[in-house]
Structures are given as C-alpha cells and as structure tokens.
Amino acid sequence: MRVVIAGGHGQIALRLTKVLAGAGHEVVGLVRNPDHQVDLTAVGGSAAVLDLEKTDVAAVAEVLAGADVAIFSAGAGPGSGTERKETVDRGAAVLFAEAAERAGVRRHLQVSSMGADRADELDPDDTFTIYLRAKKAAEDDLRGRDLDWTILRPGALTNDPGTGLVLLADKTGRGSVSRDDVAAVLAGLCETPASIGRTLELIAGDTPIATALSSL
Which residues form the NAD(P)-binding domain (predicted)? Predict the structure, then answer.
C-alpha cells in the first residue's frame, strides 16, 4: 500500500509510519517543517513538506495521487490557541478529506478524540471544548463525503509501551490508551473493511489488536 499521513511528524504518526514501513508499505508524511524530514526517514517513511494551514486542495491532492489510504492524524497541539483549533483540527481535516476525494483516494482514516460527541454539553469558552467542537465538525464533514471513511476516537493518550491489548468498539466508556497501540490499530484499520462508515472508540483493554479488528 501507499499511505499518506497528514500530521506526519506527530507522535502517533511517527509510530504508525514505523509500523507500516516495517510491514513493507510506502508511507509519506505531510510535515510543515523541512527539518522534520529526517525523523520520518529514520522510521522508514518519506516526507512531503506542505503546510495544511497555508496550502490548497490541489497541492494536497497532488501528494495524495496514487495513494491507497489517506490518514488524518494532525492536530494543533495542547499548547496552541483557540484559533488553531479551527484552522488545524477542523480546517486542515476538511481540506485533507476534500483533497482525497479529488485524488480518488477512497480509504480515509481520521483520528479524532474521545468526547467529541459531548462537546455541546461542555463550557463553550473552555479551550478543550473548542478543540472537541473542531474535531466534531471535522467528523461531521467527513461523514458527508463519498469516501470509505473510519473515524477513530482514542481515549487519553499515554507514552507507555504498547501492550497490544485494547477495547475497540462503537462505545467504550472513558479510559486511556498508549500511542503505540493507537498506531497499531490504525495500521490494522487500513485493511479492515468492516470499519468503513463507523466511528470507533479505543482504550486499553484485554483483547489482542488483531482479534479486536477481526471482531468489528
């Protein structure tokens, strides 16, 4: 497979690139900073330098051309202000999905956030609520597109070593999950047709990842 990942230098994306490249797939990560190219190369991928906040659909579609899977794993980050929640967590996701449609890349995975469906119940002025609302808006946009999409909502992310044991379901309840295991699940979802058209939650659990994917 040829896989293109938006937010290619992110913690999950680098782990995902390593997993996919290790399985023999071609992985291209979109990065804003040219200095980050070396980090993608180190884990077996390659980089396309493109700022999703400043580019257009045509430029992104050009990178996506010929891909089998498009994965949106970008995020403004916890230290960013409310404006970038809109331009990255919503705007960049919408741009990437539109570019995938234009490039004819049907398989589309989008990393969202646990709690996105509860954003309207929370303090509208809180920065985290604004982040969740942006993620929810990106989800809603993707659901309306002619793509074979899957939305993944991980729980609280940790840097603990992956266990390979998860709970993956339409609803899991709150919990945490390691970035290692998120990456492993995303790699598996690339080739799991049963996940198409579904919004899935993911936390640490007792089920081996391969079994969790095959049980969808």
Answer: 7-192
> Which residues on adjacent β-strands are paired with residue 109?
71, 150
Q: Tens digits of per-residue pLDDT, 30-49?
A: 999 999 999 999 999 999 99
State whether the Cα torsion 167-171-175-181 is positive or negative. positive
187 annotated active-site = no
DSSP state of 161: P
Structure tokens at 82: 């409310």
Q: What is the DSSP letter of 162?
A: P
pTM > 0.85: yes or no: yes
Residues spanned by the domain of 159 = 2-214
Annotated catalytic residue within 110, 131, 136, 177 = 131
Q: Are 205 and 181 in contact (CB under 8 A)?
A: no
Q: Put the strands of the sheet holding 69-72 in their side by side order.
A: 46-49, 26-31, 2-6, 69-72, 107-111, 148-154, 198-204, 165-169, 207-208
pLDDT in tens, 61-70: 999 999 999 9
Distance CA 25, CA 4 (A): 11
CATH number of the domain at 160, please. 3.40.50.720
Return the HEC string of 20-54.
Answer: HHHCCCEEEEEECCHHHHHHHHHCCCEEEECCCCC
C-beta separation of 147 from 179 below 8 A: no
3-state secondary structure of 83: helix
Quote the tokens at residue 96.
């990437």
